[in-house]
């Protein structure tokens, strides 16, 4: 076994987008369909993977900022239902009820799915620029490099000007 689930290997053979596997010491599989699950610890990468695909979240924060993320996603954004917090034990009835709420066409579930799709579009649009895909981080880096370049050019002009005035 090379560390890839059987369906991942067949997907690689069929060259489906979003799949890759690594052979060797790191046995890991990447697939947006596998990572974009509704059950999440609400770490920011997991949140972005789910919402980037328009998937509402069943939150089970465990540590650090995950609690704040879950609260924000539930109360402010409306794309999350918290299942539990930390190491709590959840009865199967409670878990089943929350899964039903999100996944089986309830009014709240439909509302969450709609909002998750809206957030998906927001994420997608945040990566676009006027001339194609160019996110805000890339734009900010470009502005920084332009400013640094202009500042350097100004320093060179000042040095050149000083050298010329000293020769006169």
Key structural traits:
mainly alpha, disordered N terminus, three-stranded parallel beta sheet, Rossmann fold, 7 helices, about 170 residues, 3 domains, two-stranded antiparallel ribbon
How would you describe the overall organization of this protein?
The protein is built from 7 helices and 7 strands. With 168 residues, it is mainly alpha-helical. The protein folds into 3 domains: 1-34, no CATH class; 36-126, 3-Layer(aba) Sandwich (Rossmann fold), CATH 3.40.50; 134-168. A 3-stranded parallel beta sheet has the order 3-4-5, sandwiched between helices. It is elongated. The N and C termini lie far apart (79 Å).
The share of residues in extended strands comes to 5-15%
CATH superfamily of the largest domain: Glycogen Phosphorylase B
Q: List low-confidence stretches.
A: 1-6, 16-26
Highest CATH level, the class of the largest domain: Alpha Beta
* Gross geometry: elongated
Strand and helix order: HEEHEHEHEHHEEH
CATH topology of the largest domain: Rossmann fold
């Amino acid at each position: 076994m090379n560390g890839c689930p059987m369906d991942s290997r067949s997907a690689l053979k069929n060259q489906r987008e979003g799949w890759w596997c690594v052979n060797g010491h790191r046995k890991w599989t990447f697939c947006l369909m596998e990572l974009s699950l509704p059950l999440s610890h609400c770490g920011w990468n997991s949140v972005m993977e789910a919402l980037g695909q328009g998937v509402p979240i069943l939150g089970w924060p465990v540590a650090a900022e995950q609690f704040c993320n879950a609260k924000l996603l539930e109360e402010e954004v409306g794309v999350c239902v918290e299942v539990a917090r930390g190491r709590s034990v959840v009865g199967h009835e409670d878990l089943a009820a929350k899964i039903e709420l999100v996944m089986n066409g309830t009014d709240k579930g439909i509302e969450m799915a709609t909002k998750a799709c809206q957030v998906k579009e927001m994420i997608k649009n945040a990566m676009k620029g006027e001339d194609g895909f160019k996110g805000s981080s890339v734009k900010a880096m470009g502005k920084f490099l332009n400013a640094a370049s202009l500042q350097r050019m100004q320093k060179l002009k000042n040095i050149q000007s000083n050298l010329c005035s000293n020769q006169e």
